[in-house]
Write a structure and sequence with these properties.
Length: 279
């Protein structure tokens, strides 16, 4: 029995080593991904279903590795967060997205705000404002055309400190969205104090809005609260007409999801924006 126990331990520890090794390998490859130009940015349009127009695009990163194929951010963002690589990745996405928005404006006459995701680690950097300022001045994008998405858990963690931080970003002229809203049990009084422009209702609530009365209640409460605080509210992950109907009925007209547009390469997004909203 003793031997078996040891064998078992041996087995697990080998497995753990293999996992650790695999992570290490992936981290090293990710490190090279930026210089090897393996990162891509896809753009997912956001719509206003009442005004029937596109109101923005969200930049979403992808890793196209020759051996691994297309790696989803769900797989490498956590690793990038732990290793600190996320800072370089976010900066690269920011510059790329800003440059793209300027190009759309100059070559197609399309003026559309672009949103980038700011990771927890990046949000805490002392030079965050400076980095964003740099990306804006380098590309010539007006700050009013840049939206920063930060998750609720990040924004609500250190409200005092974050208020100062967010005020600096606001003073610069960018707008602030709270991502994955509803998952973090925010205090409403904090929400009122923070200088934010929009909340994005998390996809997990939208997904079950048709079947679950609880999720419907949560979504309705978020919309009512955001509206009374004069915040914009957007629902993410909209996949069906019925979800759209329920969200519109509750007072949410800003939507994002596969029903309207998937994340797509810049050229495709440009063609769609040019054609205009017609669903
Ligand atoms: P997120 O910011 O909440 O982005 C929304 C995610 O939902 C995206 O996944 C998007 O492709 C997906 N999505 C959009 N509409 C639908 C829909 O109708 N149905 C379904 N099932 N999914 C939908 P993606 O691109 O895989 O990104 C996952 C997460 O990775 C993002 O969640 C964000 O937290 C993070 N991420 C992506 N790009 C970046 C980046 O450049 N920097 C940082 N820091 N994080 C990023
Ligand atoms: Ca987001
Ligand atoms: Ca989200
Ligand atoms: Ca999410």
């Amino acid at each position: 029995a003793k031997d078996a126990g040891r064998g078992c331990f041996q087995f697990y520890s080998n497995e753990m080593n293999a996992k650790a090794l695999q992570r290490l390998r992936m981290e090293n490859e990710l490190r090279k991904a930026i210089e090897n130009q393996e990162l891509r940015v896809l753009y997912q349009p956001k719509v206003d279903v009442e005004k029937r127009e596109f109101i923005g695009v969200e930049a979403l990163v992808r890793w196209e590795n020759p051996e691994r194929g297309m790696v989803s951010p769900a797989e490498f963002i956590p690793l990038a967060e732990e290793s600190g690589l996320i800072i370089d990745i976010d900066h690269w996405v920011l510059k790329t997205a800003c440059a793209q928005a300027v190009e759309w404006q100059q070559t197609l006459g399309i003026e559309i705000p672009v949103a980038v995701n700011v990771s927890a680690l990046n949000f805490k950097q002392d030079d965050l404002v400076e980095q964003i300022q740099k990306a804006l001045s380098m590309t010539g994008l007006p700050p009013s055309q840049l939206e920063l998405e930060m998750t609720e858990s990040v924004v609500m963690r250190d409200v005092e400190e974050n208020t100062v931080r967010l005020n600096k970003l606001k003073a610069m002229g960018a707008s602030i969205s709270v991502d994955d809203f509803g998952t973090g049990y925010s205090s409403l009084s904090y929400l009122k104090r923070l200088p934010i422009d929009q909340v994005k209702i998390d996809r997990s609530f939208v997904r079950d809005i048709e079947e679950s009365a609880e999720d419907r209640a949560i979504v309705n409460a978020i919309i009512a609260m955001a509206t009374s605080l004069k915040l914009d509210v957007l629902a993410e992950g909209v996949e069906t007409d019925e979800q759209t109907r329920l969200l519109k009925q509750a007072g949410c007209q800003r939507l994002q999801g596969f029903l309207y547009a998937r994340p797509m390469p810049a050229e495709e997004a440009a063609a769609l924006l040019k054609a205009g909203f017609n669903k």
